[in-house]
Amino acid sequence: MNKLADLMKAFGEAGGDKAILENNEIAHLVASGHKLLSMKSVEGLEVDAKETLTGVSAKVTVKEGIRIKNPVHLCFGVLHKRGTQKIRMDVKLEKSSSAHFIAHCIFPKAEKVKHIMDAEVEIGENAEMRYSETHYHGLYGGIEVLPKSVVRIGRNGRYFADFTLIDGRVGTLEIDYSVEAGENAVTELTARVFGHANDNIKIKEKVVLTGKNSRGIIKTRVAIEDEAIAEVTGITKGNAAGARGHVDCIEIVKDKAVAKAIPIVSVTNPLAKVTHEAAIGSVDKKQIETLMAHGLTPEEAVDIIVKGILR
Amino acid sequence: MALLEITGLTYMTQGKEILSGLSFSIEASEVHALLGTNGTGKSTLAYLIMGCEGYRPDSGEIIFNDKVVNDLKIHERAQIGITMAWQEPVRFEGISVRDYLSLKQKGTDSSRYLEMVGLSPELYLNRMVDKCLSGGERKRIELASVLELRPKLAILDEPDSGIDMLSTQDIINVINLFKQNGSSVLLITHREEIALIADRASQICRGKIVCSGSPRDVADYYKAKKCLVCDGVVCNE
């Protein structure tokens, strides 16, 4: 079986729809390790991708006024037990364009794998980008995931990103996202992670509201059990009149796991407003009792509550 | 034998006696209203019957269907037919109304239970049981979920609180539905018009049942405020 078939098999096993590769109306980019395996574009989407020594580098542009109808699928993975994959992405959404990128990151057998994502994103005036990244990890925990992105949103632009890692072991995760929002721009960053065993989770997300009336939300949902560790830092800066920001973090802790939340909010303009809320602790007793009164065992109740928070 | 028989129930917390040898019973398919001023032990009694954490009797027995359930956990009591709609139901992030209504009853038609509590399935089934719901909406959803369980005994802790006056009839309809389904109901309420639909009523004062009988008689006794002025002396005679 070739590498593409292997990766797509793993993708299918993780619940993905393999038919996306054969659909001419759906753009995609597939890379396993440092091999670029498949690529397809659609009208108005320019992709210039190349292999590097350790991964893949891609320049992606959505042309002015183009609204990409179907999500663009990015499928990255390392199928071997060991390896490094470094993805460099430069994404530009020109004025009044829009696109939804869905990244599938697949590491089913990782025992010593490093996955580095380094992205720069520029969202033009009135443009909108949605980015969803879902990870499918194996049970070994030997993976390091280091996603970093710097995003700039132009006037009236919109950027929504969500990161999900709830299947398999997390390993080591260090998210470092930074978003700068221009006038009337809107951004929402969501991360959902479920850590087990000795997984180590660090999430740092920063929103700088530089434009007048810009808005931003950082929403983080983390559940950890066994001896996992999580540290969530949500930073929001309100630097312009009418800017509104909010940091919302919930961390559920079980067993001997340790969680920490660091909300950092600052305002440099008296007409800006930034708020935060953080809740860390075990699953709410009254929530458990309510579900138990419906006949669920305590274990079933906790499972439903945790899954709900990570949904 | 009554469906629920409580004998000599005493419960203390932080050195204070909340229930003082309370005895009480509910028959099968009976709606039994429990009246009492704030702080007299109504909700405590509900939590003890349900078996909530930290609520174990210091003495006395809770007998359900001929079985002493003092040591059963909440879910074990739920599995034998006791359930409860809390006075202030909690919210759940990421759980839809549809999923919440079918936690244990997979494959049932949840729509009709929502309709029974006066909520449109089209508007509510896909909403989340989270903080976006108003207090009244959340209470109705809780009632729908308890209805769907078809319990032998439903404890309804102030089902009317937080629900607008115009919807009182909805609550009355729901209580009647429990009865039609063959469920018994322990109905904790402060509203006379709701208490009056019960088959029987009791008044609790200072951790004891001080008056039982027809809802009309008990409501009159309650309204006479004997408990408020007698400091327990008359009630406990």
Question: What do you see in this structure?
Answer:
The complex is a heterodimer of chains A (311) and B (237). By secondary structure, chain A is mainly β. Chain A contains 3 helices and 19 strands. Chain A is 10% helix and 57% strand. Chain A is globular and about 55 Å long. Chain B has 10 helices and 10 strands. In chain B, the strands form 2 sheets. A 6-stranded mixed β-sheet of chain B has the order 6-7-8-3-9-10, with helices on both faces. A 4-stranded antiparallel β-sheet of chain B has the order 2-1-4-5, with helices on one face. In chain B, a hairpin with a 2-residue loop joins strand 1 (4-13) and strand 2. The two termini of chain B are 27 Å apart. The mean pLDDT of chain B is 91. The A-B interface holds A 221, 250, 284-287, 289-298, 301, 304-305, 307-311 and B 50, 52-53, 73-75, 78-79, 83-84, 86, 89-90, 92-95, 103-104, 145, 149.
Q: Which key phrases capture this entry?
A:
heterodimer; A: 311 residues; mainly beta; 10-stranded mixed sheet; 9-stranded mixed sheet; 19 strands; 10% helix; B: 237 residues; alpha/beta; Rossmann fold; 4-stranded antiparallel sheet; globular
